[in-house]
Amino acid sequence: MTVVPDSSLTDHACLIVHGADRPGIVAAVSALITRNQGNIVAFDQYSDDPVGGAYFQRVVFHRAGLSAALGAIEADLERTIGGEFGLEWTITDQASPKRMAILASKQDHCLLDLLWRHRRGDLPVSISMVISNHPNAADDVHSFGVPFFHVPSVPGPDKSESEAKIVELLRGNVDFIVLARYMQILSPSFLEQVGVPVINIHHSFLPAFIGAEPYKKAKERGVKLIGATSHYVTSELDEGPIIEQDTVRVAHGDTASELARRGADVERQVLSRAVLWHAQDRVIRHGNHTIVF
Amino acid sequence: MTVVPDSSLTDHACLIVHGADRPGIVAAVSALITRNQGNIVAFDQYSDDPVGGAYFQRVVFHRAGLSAALGAIEADLERTIGGEFGLEWTITDQASPKRMAILASKQDHCLLDLLWRHRRGDLPVSISMVISNHPNAADDVHSFGVPFFHVPSVPGPDKSESEAKIVELLRGNVDFIVLARYMQILSPSFLEQVGVPVINIHHSFLPAFIGAEPYKKAKERGVKLIGATSHYVTSELDEGPIIEQDTVRVAHGDTASELARRGADVERQVLSRAVLWHAQDRVIRHGNHTIVF
Amino acid sequence: MTVVPDSSLTDHACLIVHGADRPGIVAAVSALITRNQGNIVAFDQYSDDPVGGAYFQRVVFHRAGLSAALGAIEADLERTIGGEFGLEWTITDQASPKRMAILASKQDHCLLDLLWRHRRGDLPVSISMVISNHPNAADDVHSFGVPFFHVPSVPGPDKSESEAKIVELLRGNVDFIVLARYMQILSPSFLEQVGVPVINIHHSFLPAFIGAEPYKKAKERGVKLIGATSHYVTSELDEGPIIEQDTVRVAHGDTASELARRGADVERQVLSRAVLWHAQDRVIRHGNHTIVF
Amino acid sequence: MTVVPDSSLTDHACLIVHGADRPGIVAAVSALITRNQGNIVAFDQYSDDPVGGAYFQRVVFHRAGLSAALGAIEADLERTIGGEFGLEWTITDQASPKRMAILASKQDHCLLDLLWRHRRGDLPVSISMVISNHPNAADDVHSFGVPFFHVPSVPGPDKSESEAKIVELLRGNVDFIVLARYMQILSPSFLEQVGVPVINIHHSFLPAFIGAEPYKKAKERGVKLIGATSHYVTSELDEGPIIEQDTVRVAHGDTASELARRGADVERQVLSRAVLWHAQDRVIRHGNHTIVF
């Protein structure tokens, strides 16, 4: 999976198409791109069942003067792909990166890893802000030139107050949210209010060890591998569509804190891949699954 | 983890010691080996808690004319390690391989893999017999010069009849049993009657997807890795001490049958490692955990 | 990468297109398939340079009554894709599996693994014959219902005599050849005479440890991972286009023979994946590289 | 491999013993520890050849009031292990961490990763200083409270001037040096003058792609995996004893810069493991090999 360097994203559009499979979709989409003077750079498609299944397609194409042409292309998509084929479609200008917010807590390894990758130019996003329920990372975040807001988590089940503050900060400012070991369960109403995708990193190989203290549970069960899972957040805890997972070997002598130390490496790898792929429009949600192109 | 070639196992003993940790155990055990003219070849020890924890030790030592000296060594162990230190110990002559029986079903990939590895000299065991509830593998098993018995599984929950036949074949003939995708749940009474360790391969990364059809469940959950787990069988389904696990990457396009095809490779790798380590006395059970030296 | 079960290959064609990249290829190919009543099942494309680069495409499409329509489709391809676009193309009926011959030597792990995978239905090929310079595997090969020929390797550099016998057996009977640890260097004239792709498995992570005794060299260098590489054979030893590679962890205590034991697992995995992908027309050679779709 | 948290290192000693193998070493060492009121916490030993081979042992033991007792223990070691057995030995107080210096260049991923891990308490070392031939990382390094020195590399082969400045900074202040993608070849005289172990990270799976631009070479060769290797620096480029290696999968579509992006993750993982193990006295050099306990 190649990350296209930012500079080369000018005049590149990413078109996502999905819906009921039927013959001729590839031909129709590629003909549309051609007649709109586009040149296909990357093309992926998948049908979960050749007969009466769902169809998914991701196309990246180059079109000189894209921004000026985008309106006409969208009208064409509406008429043909939306109209004749009855498919859903979204098109994005790759030159305008998605705006990402990071929610963090005391553990800073995933947070700092994302900030560092972004500074290196490895994450094609803009980072709007970091919100943490601990103040400890403020200086680090500022050193990356990113706004930092400290919103303490009120103890007890009712998170409405802190969630309200967070929503206020996020609303209108972000295209997606990353929970970098945020360790707070977000309410369905929060997810509804922010209205953008929320990506979480869970420190186990889901569906094993759902919920709190997975490394402790892993130690108790005596597993020989530990893992991490990045998924879209839904109203059901740790049950959302999985974007990426990975595992690492452990041994009988490793303590629970050693599992946490090793797991931290897997967490930041898995989360950064999930964020990269989401930022590149490589991930399509379908029910409780993801198609990752 | 090195597999010592059979030839070099002559006059090699493997001593396992475990019990309550206390200072001086290493010194006592190594002094005992030295005064019995043994030379330590491999030495592993582990304490799960330096203060008041459990102690585990595996020592392989060479002693010219081992079989003649074994009696005296055992008496010494009884007196010092058992007596003074109050530890449990077992000593085995590495030159006499463990007798293994394989229980199989229609799926033959794990069964054939074990037979091939044994023929190549990669598994230091003797294979007493293969028992299957399907006749299909008979010719293959015979081509390896191994006795094959077909014991059909009676439909329904009551397995006592087929289990009784299997116990009759196994009793006194085996030191451990391997379930090579046997796909039948063994009753507690069966485990009691055979009275030897039983190693199973489960086709998921436990504790994820316990029970039947793990690949189907994995496909439904949309995981990005599948795995296999080899564990000792206990009366609780898929809850026994884990010996070895591994995972392999899958993608959204992989069907459930493709997961099964890929998983088969992981299953035979994981099972063969678990069997090898058990055969080499590398695995010590402790509660629901294993120490693998 | 999904292996389509044989049964479902009826009326499926695989079209490979490659040549100089230019706008409109995807549209032209998909339009051609649509106007020939084909429905695209899988579609992969790659351009090694958006500007003036080489273009590669693999399309699998379903077309009822394919065999009857194949002539017309080929004529259309010749006219448009070959003519207008000046691209090279090949189309194959997926229902007619490629004919594979295996050349083997004393080490049988890769040979038996391929035979076993084929019997399970995991390799969509037909196995024409096994040729070995050792007689040891004859019974095993026959047990799979595959013809076995013993062609001893004449000592010394001049292999022309044994190569002539092998060419005689292979000519006209195979679509590709697999060297399953054949351990003999084939002459350029042999490669020319057989005139089909030859896939080799080398027991190292190329380009490390080219040539003989890679495990011995790996032990001497003290590497912490060993590997295996499957590649197309060219006239230069171990320099052909790489299809697949993998590695496995080893430790300081592993002897050279232990490295060989572990490596054998990696070898058969890597070779079987390379053979599968070649059999599915997923591998396109381009200079000394491969594109694997 | 468990990293013991700093707090728990008080009164813990690590004893390394190596030399010609002979019977009774384990007994002698463990008896010595027992008679000096030590309790063994971890014990590893290895002999590269049971007959006339070299012997290696690492023991961690707890001894109340270690610092006061160290003199007597050393005298005992000198008399018995050094004298009677003629073995080399070193004993270190685990509570006093090794002093590490980092040499870096423009690429900061390995440098920052080590600083982060140290701040998290995952590396039991003290960081004396960072020396870089680029000024860019100064602020980042200072934010970790670590001294930073900018020593530009003089163009051309003669590095004596800049090396002299570096030696001046390092002499007497460090126990080992880490080259975190330093990208300069150090002269034999430099290695001699600093007189401490130097650990390098090379961005390929050695011995493949020795020297400059390994990712470019990997792309040219068309490998399917890239890797990283951490090794002790010797006077021969990229030929020193390997401490740790790892690999990651790449695909035909990955550009050389994408390989570098992915490789960066492997580099920092591999280097951090090598540094951790060296800091814990787990790595013993033997000729051009390492034993990693």
How would you explain this protein's 3D organization?
- Four copies of one chain form a homotetramer.
- Chain A is globular and about 60 Å long.
- In chain A, helix 7 (214-221) packs across helix 8 (256-279).
- In chain A, strand 6 (125-132), helix 4 and strand 7 form a beta-alpha-beta unit.
- The first copy, chain A, is built from eight helices and 13 strands.
- In chain A, the strands form three sheets. A seven-stranded mixed sheet of chain A has the order 7-6-5-8-9-10-11.
- Chain A starts with 11 loop residues before the first strand and ends with a strand.
- Mean pLDDT of chain A is 94; it is low at 1-5.
- Chain A is of the alpha/beta class and 293 residues long.
Task: Please provide a brief summary of the model.
Chain A is α/β, with parallel strands linked by helices. The first copy, chain A, has helices spanning 25-35, 66-84, 109-120, 138-143, 160-170, 188-194, 214-221, 256-279; strands at residues 12-20, 39-47, 54-62, 88-93, 98-104, 125-132, 148-150, 176-180, 198-202, 225-232, 242-249, 283-286, 289-292. In chain A, a hairpin with a 2-residue loop joins strand 12 (283-286) and strand 13 (289-292).
From the structure above, extract its key features.
33% helix; PurU_ACT (chains A, B, C, D); homotetramer; 4-stranded antiparallel beta sheet; globular; alpha/beta; EC 3.5.1.10 (chains A, B, C, D); 7-stranded mixed beta sheet
Helix-strand topology string of chain A: EHEEHEEHEHEHEHEHEEHEE
Dominant shape of chain A: globular
How much of the residues of chain A is beta strand, in percent? 25-35%
Question: How many distinct helices of chain A?
Answer: 8
Uncertain stretches of chain A = 1-5
Main sheet specs of chain A:
7 strands, mixed
Structural class of chain A: alpha/beta
Strand order of the largest sheet of chain A: 7-6-5-8-9-10-11
Number of strands of chain A: 13
Q: Give the terminus-to-terminus CA distance of chain A.
A: 8 Å
Overall radius of gyration of chain A: 21 Å
Largest interface: A-B, 27 and 27 residues
Amount of helix of chain A = 25-40%
Oligomer: homotetramer
Active site (chains A, B, C, D): 238
GO molecular function (chains A, B, C, D): formyltetrahydrofolate deformylase activity
Catalytic activity (chains A, B, C, D): (6R)-10-formyltetrahydrofolate + H2O = (6S)-5,6,7,8-tetrahydrofolate + formate + H(+)
Domain ACT (chains A, B, C, D): 14-92
